[in-house]
Design goal:
single chain; alpha+beta; Hypothetical Protein Pfu-838710-001; CHAD domain; eight-stranded antiparallel barrel; about 20% strand
């Protein structure tokens, strides 16, 4: 499949009347200078499912003819950013004929579309007049476009028209440009422009396009609220996270594999923690499928972690010697390519699509037992206490010379306890959140501990295949990883008393 180019877009959309007049941006000293561009016309056909699954996730896909960036465009929301920031993935026009979505883009959005069909739904014709705002050096820093828009919905043959101003920072990482973008937008608002966030095409569908997505964000309930509402909120949050991490993996976005595994792990932990309130057969099936998916991702993530860790540690030991880093890269980068191919095959399987459908259903209507309708304050602390008790028992026998496998089992218990506490801390307040934070510190240390243990085994494998000088450097690195493993054990032993204090203060255990 053809890889897409990626552009980070941060803009402000403003709706204005047809007779709207621009404010005097130069006279009011909002900007220094600007240059008008030649007007031109664009025609874009937008694609979605009949149920508007993409629009409802605030995603747009289009094929646009005309303008300097004619082609296929997929705009995706940016995690942990406001609605004005989106990643725009671009392919040339020839990547897909009209009516045929390019395989690259269809694959990227497939976790959100699943078994629904993508089809042309809306045509948007835009008469655009661009303006380029210049910085003190005469370079373009902001683009303002004045659009007169006609939107035609294919199915109902309805047409709407409006005028829209867009103000976009040309460099999404330039703080000066971003501040100027907001100042310009404010100047327009002061003379009557109305801020907006929906795409031009979404105007054709009205409320349908801004309806909640397949997995709506559910507010967390209170202590007095029923447990099933907490379960819906928690499963929904992690299922949403997993869907968008899946999108990220398919576009090879940084850290996406890690985020997908975290989401799967938290979902499994949720099913385990709340197990006494959930249907047993339903829980077992969903847990098994999430475990399968996490395993499919495991080889990529483990290899990424090892590669990053061992290169960093090798540079610490010998900043000017590249023997160990070269041997490590040669093996692990080849493994990474193979692991990614295997993981993508799993993501594109029917089994994975069925899992995603099950997660959407689980977030909306989890299968629960009668006790799930009891108040949170009555049933949830008991479930958290169960995970905390398992962790305490696992930790009780840990010593500096305890086998690594036993330390790893304690890490698993610590993650379960952490996820259980973090899941309910919005309900039970700051002390519960502090308990979750203390457990997070512990899991970070134990995670580093486990990584050093795995690294040691890989280094032994590499040593067997290396020549003399390289084997010597890898041996030094092996000894260093053993030292780090012991240091992490000391870190954990020092942290643990604070975790126990936080547990007592939380009111949960």
């Amino acid at each position: 499949m053809t890889p897409a180019q990626v552009h980070r877009e941060i803009e402000r959309k403003l709706r204005v009347p047809a007779e709207f007049e621009f404010p005097d941006l130069q006279g009011s000293a909002v900007i220094g200078s600007w240059e008008p561009g030649a007007p031109f016309e664009m025609t874009a056909v937008y694609y979605d499912t009949p149920e508007l699954r993409l629009f409802r996730w605030r995603i747009t896909m289009r094929r646009r003819v005309g303008g300097k960036d004619a082609g296929w465009h997929l705009k995706l929301p940016v995690a942990k950013a406001d609605g004005s920031a989106r990643d725009e993935l671009q392919l040339p026009l020839e990547a897909g004929a009209p009516g045929v979505v390019p395989a690259t883009l269809a694959d990227i959005v497939s976790p959100l579309v699943r078994d629904a069909q993508l089809m042309p739904l809306v045509t948007v014709t835009t008469s655009r007049t661009p303006y380029l705002v210049l910085d003190s050096n005469g370079s373009g820093i902001i683009e303002i476009v004045d659009d007169r828009v006609v939107v035609s919905e294919t199915a109902n043959q309805t047409t709407t028209s409006f005028r829209e101003i867009e103000v976009e920072a040309l460099d999404a990482e330039d703080d000066t440009a971003l501040a100027l973008m907001d100042s310009i937008a404010a100047a327009f608002i002061n003379v009557g422009a109305v801020p907006g966030s929906t795409s031009k095409a979404a105007s054709a569908f009205g409320a349908r396009a801004t309806a909640p997505p397949d997995i709506p964000a559910m507010p967390m309930t209170t202590r007095e609220g029923v447990a099933i509402d907490a379960i819906r909120s928690i499963i929904g949050e992690h299922a949403r996270h997993l869907l968008f991490a899946d999108v990220g993996v398919r576009r090879d976005a940084e850290d996406s594999v890690h985020q997908m595994r975290v989401a799967a792990r938290r979902l499994r932990s949720t099913l385990r923690t709340f197990g006494p309130l959930l249907d047993d057969e339903w829980t077992a099936t969903l847990t098994e499928e999430l475990a399968w998916m996490a395993q499919e991702m495991g080889a990529i993530r483990d290899t990424e972690v090892l590669l990053k860790r061992l290169i960093k540690d090798a540079k610490i030991l010998a900043p000017n010697d590249d023997l160990a880093p070269t041997a490590i890269k040669r093996l692990l980068e080849a493994r990474l390519i193979s692991a990614r191919a295997g993981a993508l095959a799993g993501l594109r399987s029917d089994r994975h699509e069925y899992l995603l459908e099950d997660l959407v259903t689980a977030a909306r209507e989890p299968k629960v037992k009668d006790d799930a309708y009891l108040p949170c304050e009555e049933v949830l602390p008991k479930l958290v206490a169960r995970e905390w008790s398992a962790l305490r028992k696992s930790v009780s026998g840990l010593q500096e010379d305890t086998p690594s496998t036993v330390w790893h089992r304690a890490r698993i218990k610590a993650k379960r306890a952490r996820y259980a506490v973090e899941a309910v801390s919005p309900i039970f307040g700051p002390a519960a959140a502090a308990f979750g934070s203390a457990l997070a510190d512990v899991t970070e240390v134990l995670g580093e501990h486990q990584d050093t243990y795995i690294a040691q085994h890989l280094l032994l494998e590499l040593v067997d295949k290396a020549d003399g000088p390289t084997a010597f450097m890898l041996g030094r690195l092996y000894s260093y990883e053993i030292e780090r493993e012991m240091a992490y054990r000391d870190d954990f032993i020092n942290l643990w008393p604070e975790v126990r204090k936080a547990a007592k203060r939380s009111g949960l255990v």
